[in-house]
């Protein structure tokens, strides 16, 4: 399904001026950019991240199978939350990847609102997301022709795991941050753990991939955001 331009919220660098780096932060199922704007602002207030711009798109509204076909914001259709072997909405995933990549390209060519021609190279862009958004962030990184600064996957899984190797644009790797709650009732902890092992071993990320876990449900927690901020400092620091 083709999607129109995504509704997007931008949190500019707290230090003022043009950004030297950008973080794309993609929300989860049924949420919106507003659901993560406080996290973006919190990260942006970090002394070492005041040069970073945060871009938060909102997914389109569409029917979702696991929601009994009712419409909600969703990056792609979900057939099951307990068994990925029931299939995945590859067309929907790739459509969202295409839509978000257009926003990324606007960062790199300086045409995005607020940049006024100032360009942020792909090597200074982090792709991050929670749950469904984390799946799209991973696909963005793996299918991008240019190497991103890094990918952060929160409470999520590796999408299209059976064919992801064939979808990769190159064998490039980059810093990879994955976090998951040990009491997650939505995306099982073991889904996250197995996905991380696939990224680390099968996709060859090795020591560039790091795992973090927290005693939390399907959500974010202060310790996780602190760890994410520290990781962002390492990959986007001046």
Automatic annotation (TrEMBL):
Annotated Phospholipase/carboxylesterase/thioesterase domain ranges read 20-234
The GO annotation for biological process reads: fatty acid metabolic process
Q: Which GO terms describe its molecular function?
A: diacylglycerol lipase activity; monoacylglycerol lipase activity; palmitoyl-(protein) hydrolase activity
Q: Does the keyword Hydrolase belong to this entry?
A: yes
Pfam hit, one: Abhydrolase_2
Catalyzed reactions per annotation = S-hexadecanoyl-L-cysteinyl-[protein] + H2O = L-cysteinyl-[protein] + hexadecanoate + H(+); a diacylglycerol + H2O = a monoacylglycerol + a fatty acid + H(+); a monoacylglycerol + H2O = glycerol + a fatty acid + H(+)
User: Per the record, what is one GO cellular component?
Assistant: cytoplasm
In terms of superkingdom, the source organism counts as Eukaryota
The alphabetical list of record keywords is: Fatty acid metabolism, Hydrolase, Lipid metabolism, Serine esterase
Enzyme Commission number(s) = 3.1.2.22
Q: What class of enzyme is it?
A: hydrolase
Checking InterPro entries in the record gives: AB_hydrolase_fold, LYPA1-2/EST-like, PLipase/COase/thioEstase
Q: Does the keyword Hydrolase apply?
A: yes
Cited function? Hydrolyzes fatty acids from S-acylated cysteine residues in proteins with a strong preference for palmitoylated G-alpha proteins over other acyl substrates. Mediates the deacylation of G-alpha proteins such as GPA1 in vivo, but has weak or no activity toward palmitoylated Ras proteins. Has weak lysophospholipase activity in vitro; however such activity may not exist in vivo.
Task: Give the protein family.
Answer: Belongs to the AB hydrolase superfamily. AB hydrolase 2 family.
Q: What is this protein called?
A: Acyl-protein thioesterase 1
Species whose genome carries this gene? Malassezia restricta (strain ATCC 96810 / NBRC 103918 / CBS 7877) (Seborrheic dermatitis infection agent)
From the broadest rank down, the organism's phylogenetic lineage runs: Eukaryota, Fungi, Dikarya, Basidiomycota, Ustilaginomycotina
């Amino acid at each position: 399904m083709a999607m129109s331009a995504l509704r997007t919220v931008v949190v500019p660098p707290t230090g003022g001026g043009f950004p030297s780096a950008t973080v794309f932060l993609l929300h989860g199922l049924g949420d919106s950019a507003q659901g993560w704007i406080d996290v973006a602002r919190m990260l942006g207030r970090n002394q070492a991240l005041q040069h970073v711009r945060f871009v938060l798109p909102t997914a389109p509204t569409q029917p979702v199978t696991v929601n009994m076909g009712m419409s909600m914001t969703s990056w792609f259709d979900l057939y099951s939350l307990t068994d990925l072997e029931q299939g995945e909405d590859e067309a929907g995933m790739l459509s969202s990847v295409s839509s978000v990549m257009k926003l990324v390209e606007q960062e790199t060519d300086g045409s995005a609102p607020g940049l006024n021609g100032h360009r942020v190279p792909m090597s200074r862009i982090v792709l991050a997301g929670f749950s469904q958004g984390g799946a799209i962030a991973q696909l963005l990184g793996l299918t991008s022709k240019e190497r991103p600064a890094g990918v952060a996957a929160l409470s999520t899984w590796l999408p299209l795991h059976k064919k992801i190797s064939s979808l990769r644009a190159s064998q490039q790797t980059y810093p990879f941050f994955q976090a998951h709650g040990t009491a997650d009732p939505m995306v099982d902890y073991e889904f996250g753990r197995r996905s991380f092992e696939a990224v680390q071993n099968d996709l060859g990320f090795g020591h560039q991939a790091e795992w973090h876990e927290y005693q939390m449900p399907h959500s974010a927690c202060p310790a996780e955001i602190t760890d994410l901020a520290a990781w962002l400092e390492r990959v986007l620091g001046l």
